[in-house]
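Entry 14. Two folds queued back to back today. First construct below, sequence then structure tokens.
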Amino acid sequence: MAIQIIINQAGPLPITAKFTAPSDGSTNLEVKGSVFTTKQNVMLGIHVELDGHSKGKARIFSNGALTHRPVIPAYIPVQLKQGEHTLTLSAAPDSITDHNDFFNVVLHY
């Protein structure tokens, strides 16, 4: 299986990247990064949008506040057509990001 790196950069979110799908067919997006919050006992995460449509989230539950936490990597199946696409990562509710957070999205095809 081949990979294509789509995003590999520091925050803050949102981050938008354009990429070219190498072929038609079933693929998977692997999404990783970190987030923090000012609250206790909340679900945090990174929202993933592809071509204007919500595709999923990479999440983690946080017991404490003000600590950057890595989300559990999410593998999101997507059906792509060969050509240009737009991917956007944004902070899920209660999630905050800044320049100390780093984000990585890889297309597995």
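Second construct, same run, same settings:
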Amino acid sequence: MRRRQFMTLGSYLVARPHVARAQPSGRIRRIGLLSPFSENDSETRTRLAAFKQSLEGLGWTEGRNIRIDIRYSDGNPERTRIAAAELVALTPDVLLAYANPAVSALQPLTRTIPIVFTQVSAPVESGFVSNLAHPEGNITGFHSFEPSMGGKWLELLKSMAPHVRRAAVVYHPNIAANVAFLRAAEAASASFGMTVTAAAVRDGTDIERSVTAFAQEPAGGLIVAPAPPTFDRRDLVIALADRFRLPAIYSYRFFIKSGGLASYGYEGSEQFQAAATYVDRILRGAKPAELPLQLPTKYQLVINLKAAKAIGLVIPESFVSRADEVIE
């Protein structure tokens, strides 16, 4: 049951000035794309397909006037660094960085190749840019969540499951944005009468160990921060939440499609479509410093009542009525 609509691509582009478009030249332009996620991940494939489709609508067809070199690293930091170096060595016309670890790997390697990022959180706090409206350097793009979202996820968890008094933030300790979400949740915890536990994870073993340890005491719930380990191993995270009957809130709807309880975030594919418009403008001569960073104007709350029933959770009707989409 859908209660309100997703944001549209236009919500990203409302501030975008009109630019007269020349047709792409006959020269094949090169785009490097770095993903810290698995090549086999279905959501990653969906997002990259949306990016390519949007590019084609703007006049860029792979094999005709563009070449896209893609590197995946399966969440491994060393492979991410190696992949970033390989892409920079190809001297592409523009780089697309998917998520915080990709920007972190590319940023030290080039100050001249334009970098457009997508699905990045807290870009100022992460040191990627110093100014959202005027990026100044060679990096711009579309960011996902401000640090304060950590407090918002905590508020939603408490409202959804009022009995919860303890929240574990499942986060990656080497991603500055994830640490910022944790700090925001900690700062907000007293106002909700809750305590917050840091559950640092880098891989599946960490996820299983941290969630299992946290679940040994009652009245707990999870906030699952966006990071490669939790994205690529979302089935494991959801299974652990179910096993230990832990109410959990996630950052993206695709966790709910996989059986998760609730999410508060935005539609990722639309952000990739929007990123294609910035890549297009750069290929036509624009500079990253001329393109302000953009944040989603709408977030969606999705609730899975079937998942709630499975863990014996009765969600207050007042909370259900707030949802944009309810899966029954």
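Quick look at the second one. The chain has a mean pLDDT of 92. The domain at 10-144+267-290 is CATH 3.40.50.2300 (Rossmann fold).
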